[in-house]
Write a structure and sequence with these properties.
about 270 residues; mainly alpha; two-stranded antiparallel sheet; 9 helices; about 60% helix; TET_plant
Amino acid sequence: MFRISNTVVGALNVLSLLLGIAAVGSSAYIHVRGGSDCQKVLQVPLLVGGIFVVLVSALGIVGSLCRVNGALYAYLLVTFMVIVGLAFFTVFALFVTNRKVGQRVSGKGYGEYRVADFSHWLQRYVVNNKNWDEVKSCLMDAHVCQNLALNGGRNNDSLIFKHFSTTQAGCCKPPVYCGFIMKNATFWEVPKKGPAANNNTDCSTWNNSKEKLCYDCNSCKGGVLANIRNQWRRLTVFNACVLVLVTAIYALGCYAIKNNRSDSHCNHRKPPIP
């Protein structure tokens, strides 16, 4: 007779097996149909992650439902390594996102960010030349600077952005301290006397071309880092919940091994039927 722990571990691994197959299928779809540079970045992680989940889930199913202790031992070993990895990542994510950043722009409803506001690890990983070219390509593919909602009266000076994300605040307009005059959501006019902050490279980097805007500005990099920081904070909460779930599955797996041993021992002691 199946024990409850064996059934639960088996059912959860069937679900994870389906998720792994879906991830592999998504990777294959991107490979066959192609896509943007941003989508292609996900192809290899989806494939590797999907194959890993499929293999581990298969071990869990065979070990718990087919009562194969060798497979269950291998499953628990991998699960333990996953628990350690999740715990390490949770602590690491909290460490690299624990700085309070951003300056609120009075009356504008959004904040502006500097690269120096963030941890050195995030700066080195995201802002280096190679990775930033890929990030910039993703921003353009996602059209983050199109259809920006504005609020205001007839005077252009009173225009205020609505629902402005940290990325849009840094990449879709020049920094406020440049003193540029807004004509519409993505077109800004340099004052006749020049930028208010002549020594700031972002003021000279800004370009009204929709393909350039402020994608090469430090403020854009800061906005992207702020968005990553916010996403990582949410991911940390999600990761902690997954950690609790995986730990519970690990405990159930231990009980499943005990059940397998107990049933195997009973079968060996049972006298043959004459």
